[in-house]
Amino acid sequence: MSVVISCGEPAGVGPEVAAKAWAALAAEIALTWIGDPRHLPAGTPVREVSAPVSAPSPDALPVLARDFGPPAVPGTPNPAHAPGVVAAIEEGVALVRSGAASALCTAPIHKAALIDGAAFAYPGHTEFLAALAGVERVVMMLACDALKVVPATIHIPLAEVPEALTADLLSETIRITAASLTRDFGVARPRIAVAGLNPHAGEAGKIGGEELAVMIPALEALRGEGLDVTGPLPADTMFHAAARSRYDAAVCAYHDQALIPIKTIDFAGGVNVTLGLPFVRTSPDHGTAFDIAGRGVADPTSMIAALRMAAAMAAARARRPR
Ligand SMILES: NC(=O)c1ccc[n+]([C@@H]2O[C@H](COP(=O)([O-])OP(=O)(O)OC[C@H]3O[C@@H](n4cnc5c(N)ncnc54)[C@H](O)[C@@H]3O)[C@@H](O)[C@H]2O)c1
Ligand SMILES: N[C@H](C(=O)O)[C@H](O)COP(=O)(O)O
């Protein structure tokens, strides 16, 4: 399987964790990095290529070299780089859609830097990739060995969550999650737990009405379709080890309800994966980490896990085409 890596924000830790991950996986996965090679850590062995490689390259990191103009200053994004960062994602998508690569792994972007420098119209990769693929609804999943979580609403202000959390959104999110658990992760009959929006999942309507009005009817309808769905559950007690053993994925009402438990349990090993796209996309669970960029101390574990997951998902899809 060949995986292309979009460079992400040059002022962040993305180039560093990509170079370190390549060093760790050089004999295991065919990796190709898209970006300006001057943004890679000094001393990274580079081999410029004109197309993604199809075999592992243990001696040098294959690079689709693109000129971003000014050099990168660690920790300080340059608006002049933003168009190149966006173009690298677009190129990665084009390569996986054409079949030139098997999967895309995106290094972290700095959303504000892209909005300022490239009038980026999306709050994250997830929404941008959906637009590039022409898909109306995609699902963000963060996965580690101990837990898989899905925020039903993603990058929106907390104040907008109750209105955005419709029965249609919840139902589609759960259907996409269940289908991907089977297709990409080999779970024959996925068990999905759903977190309530309100404290104590609404306490039978005494602490918020969304569970009774929206969530419970939606989950009952999904059970009628044959899906194994439990909830809405009180979110505070569904992430300890015994609770986690009862489901394959937790669908949550909003971003932090889903991402706090997984980034607490396994920040180093978590992977962000987009479900519902016509291609495989993963990413590390961390961001640009400007506070440590350029110091050589960034932990590549999440990037390594993201690359391994991308290759494994691409292999699973090759074995199990839709
Ligand atoms: N996949 C993505 O593109 C992605 C994911 C998450 C956040 N982001 C973006 O990144 C930017 C910064 O986000 P943030 O500050 O909330 O989170 P962050 O993950 O960048 O940093 C949070 C903390 O974790 C540390 N950290 C992060 N990655 C690390 C690594 N590999 N090794 C060691 N320590 C690491 C940082 O030093 C910092 O202290 C924001 O613009 C955010 O939107 C992008
Ligand atoms: N919500 C993600 C996280 O905090 O890990 C992150 O912002 C990445 O989102 P995209 O994959 O949409 O860029």
TrEMBL record:
SUPFAM superfamilies: Isocitrate/Isopropylmalate dehydrogenase-like. Pfam families: PdxA. It catalyses: 4-(phosphooxy)-L-threonine + NAD(+) = 3-amino-2-oxopropyl phosphate + CO2 + NADH. It is an enzyme of class 1 (oxidoreductase). A divalent metal cation binds at H155, H200, H255. It is found in: Cytoplasm. Belongs to the PdxA family. Catalyzes the NAD(P)-dependent oxidation of 4-(phosphooxy)-L-threonine (HTP) into 2-amino-3-oxo-4-(phosphooxy)butyric acid which spontaneously decarboxylates to form 3-amino-2-oxopropyl phosphate (AHAP). This is 4-hydroxythreonine-4-phosphate dehydrogenase. The gene is pdxA.
